[in-house]
Amino acid sequence: MSKAIRFYETGGPEVLKFEDVEVGEPGPGEARVRHTYIALNFIDIYFRTGRYPLALPNGLGSDAVGVVEAVGSGVTDIRVGDRVGYLIGPQGAYAQARVMPAAVLIPLPDGISDRTAATLMMKGMTAQYLFRQVYPLQGGETILYHAAAGGVGLIACQWARAMGVTMIGTVSTDEKAAIAKANGCAHTIVTSRENIVQRVKEITDGKGVPVVYDSVGKDTLEASLDCLQPRGSLISNGTSSGAVIVDSQMLAVKGSIWFTRPAMMHYIQPRAHMLDMAKELFGHVLAGRIASEPQQTFALADAADAHRALESRKTVGATVLVP
């Protein structure tokens, strides 16, 4: 028997229940993982509230790290005792232990702790696919990145610096601006008192930027479009302020803008590619170019409180749950 967060209806954080669950033995192609740290992501809120539908009742959470306790038949590249992490697969990472498809498990290198790795699975791999695949940065660009002090944002700040990319990052407070700059963000825009478009034009001598990475959505859509150069790219990688509705004619009027709403699932497969992505990310961490640690920690039983903190924008960087 193990403990896990379950929910039976969509709604506020109060719908999350901490319950006993049966874990069982892994079947063919599966492994049982005992979690050490579980990541909190904004997408978890989308599932909890029903923005992204799930069949109920269900578990919650997409990524975690831990130790393999048992493997099923046919599993050859994952062994009992291996430290692993994952970021795709069925919902249900908010648990002390669970059975997972072995094909989604990523071995962790010795030089990276479980605590650090918990901030890298979804968040670090998101930075990888945004910067290296969706709009492959070459170095030398000036980019706009919204929510620069968030969990993905702080990794993106460091990755941009490592690549020689000038990152303009939006944040909500001066405190978050200082944190983003300390992590490599070249310029910050405090949205509570500064105009995004005006500041971007000032920083770029009126040119605008070739790409905007926008995880905020509805509240920043117009500003994002107005910051782009003609034929620029708007990467909509989140909608924390609300869904984005784009009129194709508007894209033409704003400068023949390219618009995409990427999903990790389409950039991370097959398994060999996923492992290569992780290798690149871990290489930056082991070389000291990217440092990532949880800034907030909650007990698994207090997942509802963690959701309240994330929704209220009180968090900075990554948040993890401890089983």
UniProtKB/TrEMBL annotation:
EC number: 1.6.5.5
Keyword NADP recorded: yes
Residues forming coiled coils: none
SMART domains: PKS_ER
MF terms (GO), sorted A to Z: mRNA 3'-UTR AU-rich region binding; NADPH binding; quinone reductase (NADPH) activity; zinc ion binding
Classification via InterPro entries: ADH-like_C (IPR013149), ADH-like_N (IPR013154), ER (IPR020843), GroES-like_sf (IPR011032), NAD(P)-bd_dom_sf (IPR036291), QOR-like (IPR047618), Quin_OxRdtase/zeta-crystal_CS (IPR002364)
GO cellular component: cytosol
PROSITE patterns (UniProt xref): QOR_ZETA_CRYSTAL (PS01162)
Segments forming domain Enoyl reductase (ER): 11-321
UniProt keyword list: NADP, Oxidoreductase
Short name of any one Pfam family annotated for the protein: ADH_N
PANTHER family cross-referenced by the UniProt entry: QUINONE OXIDOREDUCTASE PIG3-RELATED (PTHR48106), QUINONE OXIDOREDUCTASE-RELATED (PTHR48106:SF13)
Stored NCBIfam families: PRK10754.1
Name under which the protein is recorded: Quinone oxidoreductase
Source species: Cupriavidus basilensis
